[in-house]
Amino acid sequence: MADTKSDSIEETSAFTPRFNEAGLIPAIAQDAMTGDILMMAWMNSEAIEKTLETQEVHYWSRSRGELWHKGATSGHIQTLVSMHVDCDQDVVLVKVTQTGAACHTGRDTCFYRKVTKDDDRLTLKPGH
Q1: What is the domain-level CATH number for residue 64?
Q2: Residue ranges of the binding site for Zn(2+)
Q3: How does pLDDT run across 91-107, given as a tens digit for each residue?
Q4: Number of domains forming the structure of the chain
C-alpha cells in the first residue's frame, strides 16, 4: 500500500533529485507537441539549474566531462516547455520544443530502431 504521508518522496513538493554515485540523473527528452521520445542523456545539478534558468536544455556530457548546451554547436536547440520528475525522483523528463534533429545522426529521434526477435536472434529494424 502506498505511503500517503505528505512528507513521503512520492507526495512531497520538495524537488530532491536522487543523483547516482557520479552525481548524475537520467533525463529523457520528449517532444511536447507529439509526445515522441527524442533522446536520453544525463543531467547533474548544474545542468538542471542552467536548464531552468535559460529555458534551453543543458545536459552533462559524460564523454567530454563537461556541461553540454544541447544544440549550441549544431543549432538543434531544445527549448524547455516543462520539467518533470518521476515518483521516486530518480529520472527527469524534459518536455521540449525541438529545433532540428534531436539525434547526433541527424534523425528526429535517437530511438529510430526497433528491437525484434527473428527465430532465436535479436535484430534491429528501422522504425520506432
Answers
A1: 3.10.20.810
A2: 87, 103, 110
A3: 999 999 999 999 999 99
A4: 1
DSSP-derived secondary structure for the chain? -----TTSTTT-SS------TTS-EEEEEEETTT--EEEEEEE-HHHHHHHHHHSB-EEEETTTTEEEETTTTTS--EEEEEEEE-TTSS-EEEEEEEPS-SSTTS-S-S--EEEEEETTEEEEEE--
Annotated binding site: 86-88, 90, 103, 110
Domain limits for position 76 = 25-100+108-126
Closest listed residue to residue 86, CA positions, set 3, 28, 35, 45: 28
Grid cell, residue 90, equals 530518480
The answer as to whether 7 is a domain residue is no
Annotated binding site for Mg(2+): 86, 88, 90
Confidence (pTM): 0.87
Given the DSSP bridges, would you call strands 121-126 and 113-118 parallel, antiparallel or unpaired? antiparallel
| Grid coordinates of 27 | 533525463
Structural domain contains residue 5: no
